[in-house]
From TrEMBL:
The lineage of its organism: Bacteria, Bacillati, Bacillota, Bacilli, Lactobacillales. Its main location: cytoplasm. This is Chromosome segregation DNA-binding protein. NCBIfam families: parB_part (TIGR00180). Residues 43-132 form the ParB-like N-terminal domain. It comes from the Bacteria. GO terms for cellular component: chromosome; nucleoid. The keyword DNA-binding applies. It comes from Fructobacillus pseudoficulneus. GO terms for biological process: chromosome segregation; positive regulation of sporulation resulting in formation of a cellular spore. Keywords: Chromosome partition, DNA-binding. CDD domains: SPO0J_N (cd16393). Pfam families: HTH_ParB (PF17762), ParB_C (PF23552), ParB_N (PF02195). InterPro entries: Chromosome_partition/occlusion, HTH_ParB/Spo0J, ParB/RepB/Spo0J, ParB/Sulfiredoxin_sf, ParB_dimer_C, ParB_N.
Length: 299
């Protein structure tokens, strides 16, 4: 039976070739390094001659994970070479920036690499796919990467989705986050605001409303549904929904029941004669007292 690859997997094959090193492979796989293509070879390059990928969508690297990777490299060596391209007298990383940073932290002088001829379009696409496969990007980094890649490749949302093996709605929803004020985007990146909360804020018409909403969300620890309700209220002028006026019948009945049970009673009259009665009790003993008034025996 032939295993079908995901959209991202197929794109990686088309970009790297069937026998090339795949960026989705973990930095320290237990298997041997994959062979370079015909005409390519693994070489040692001075770290001082290597530059970061100019199309790298990932702006933040976790120091702890880099430290763990560095320890692994120190103990086992670099099992998978990084992939670079030559630009003038320097080299730019195509895949393997975490491995590069980890090796750099060990005060090493050189790193093993495969030099590959790659154009800007392929390099930008590779950088995004590599990070998407590892779930390395926060929602804002991902959205900015979509926008940059669309400009780089001169494609629309549908065409980009096809290239990345994504749904068009995924691309569209990500790009919408870039319409939020920079301060809100920063909160998403720091993890203080979820993608769902941020997306709900897109329904607000004024930046002043967004700022007000942010303060309320953080102060009251609102969930997504509560944020959506807050957005509706702010768009309606900031007025809280008016409570339905209590009917004279419900009010009178509640008072009479409170007198009988000696506790708080709430009567909610619904439509077509339906409704519900809520009787409050303060303890198990208080509940037993109320049940006794109702002639209900409890074992």
């Amino acid at each position: 039976m032939v295993n079908k690859k995901s959209g991202l997997g197929k794109n990686m094959d088309s970009l790297f070739g069937a026998n090339r090193i795949s960026p989705e492979a973990l930095e320290h796989s237990k298997t041997a390094s994959r062979s370079p293509e015909a005409g390519e070879k693994v070489v040692s390059l001075p770290l001082s001659q290597i530059e970061a990928n100019p199309f790298q969508p990932r702006l933040h690297f976790d120091d702890e994970s880099i430290k763990e990777l560095a320890q692994s490299i120190q103990e086992n060596g670099l099992l998978t070479p990084i992939i670079v391209r030559k630009t003038g007298s320097k080299y730019q990383i195509i895949a393997g920036e975490r491995r590069f940073r980890a090796t750099q932290s060990l005060a090493a002088k050189e790193i093993t690499a495969i030099v590959r001829a790659t154009n800007d379009d392929t390099m930008a696409t590779l950088a995004l796919i590599e990070n998407l496969q590892r779930d390395n990007l926060d929602p804002i980094e991902e959205a900015r990467a979509y926008a940059n890649l669309m400009a780089q490749l001169q494609v629309n949302q549908t065409q980009l989705a096809e290239k990345l093996g994504k749904e068009r709605t995924t691309i569209a929803n990500g790009l919408r986050l870039l319409k939020l004020p920079n301060a809100v985007q920063d909160l998403v990146q720091s993890g203080d605001l979820s993608m769902g909360q941020a997306r709900a804020l897109l329904g607000l018409e004024k930046e002043s409303q967004v700022n007000e909403a942010i303060q309320t969300i953080i102060k009251d620890q609102l969930n997504v549904r509560q944020v959506e309700a807050l957005v509706k209220r702010l768009n309606a002028g900031g007025q809280k929904p008016q409570k339905k006026a209590e009917s004279p019948f419900a009010k009178d009945l509640a008072n009479r029941l409170e007198d009988k049970f000696g506790t708080k009673v709430k009567v909610n009259a619904g439509q077509k004669g339906a409704g519900k009665i809520e009787i409050a009790y303060l303890s198990e003993q208080d509940l037993a007292r109320i049940l006794s008034i109702l002639s209900i025996e409890v074992d």
